[in-house]
Amino acid sequence: MDLQTPCNACISINRKPDTLRRHSFSKSISLPNNRFKTMSELRTQVAVKYDTQQSLSVPSHKVTVHDRQRDVVYEFFVPEDQYILHTAEDQDITLPFACRHGCCTSCAVRVKSGELRQPEALGISAELKSKGYALLCVGYPSSDLEVETQDEDEVYWLQFGRYFARGPIERDDYALELAMLDE
């Protein structure tokens, strides 16, 4: 059985053009035409269409994050089709997170103004969502947005506190230290 290497036409069909690689939204780029014609191994014309306009036509929104733990305010732009946390990280902005899947409350924020979508946010209840809480790791901006980071334990207590009759559990460092000595 002879193994054949693919022809140049097949390679060019499967390869994305260099101009479609990731670009910052603040830069303008020139894009190729929507259709490319190439020849296959059988010498028939093949039309390949790249939908480049869709990714560039997505609106971006200004997101302002008041980080209470670090006493810092971050402002950056996020496209509607990207998670807020991921875009912040791409711009070297460090925000609190843990699971990145919307299952915990480490990246919880309180929305001060604006709107966001968070269809995958399992870590907070519908009740907390209605009170303005959101998760940055699975949140998409729908408008310009201003949010404030929250203490993870505080959000956890708001969500599950009614199930604990005695109130929040106080951390006992001495008992924790003794338990660590037993191991």
Write up what this structure looks like:
The protein has 183 residues and is an alpha+beta fold. The chain has two domains: 8-56, no CATH class; 60-163, Ubiquitin-like (UB roll), CATH 3.10.20.30. The protein contains six helices and nine strands; from the N terminus they run αββαββαββαβββαα. The strands form three sheets. Strands 4-3-9-5-7 form a five-stranded mixed beta sheet. A two-stranded antiparallel sheet has the order 1-2. It is elongated. Residues 9-55 have low confidence and may be disordered. InterPro entries: 2Fe-2S_ferredoxin-like_sf, 2Fe-2S_ferredoxin-type, Beta-grasp_dom_sf, Fd_pln. Belongs to the 2Fe2S plant-type ferredoxin family. One of its GO terms (molecular function) is electron transfer activity. One of its GO terms (biological process) is electron transport chain.
Key attributes of the depicted protein:
electron transfer activity; two-stranded antiparallel sheet; 2 iron, 2 sulfur cluster binding; five-stranded mixed beta sheet; 2 domains; chloroplast; alpha+beta; 6 helices; 183 residues; Ubiquitin-like (UB roll); 2Fe-2S
Fold blueprint:
Layout: H1 8-14, E1 35-39, E2 45-49, H2 52-56, E3 60-67, E4 72-79, H3 84-90, E5 108-113, E6 116-117, H4 126-130, E7 133-135, E8 140-141, E9 145-149, H5 152-160, H6 173-182
Parallel strand pairs: 3-9
Antiparallel strand pairs: 1-2, 3-4, 5-7, 5-9, 6-8
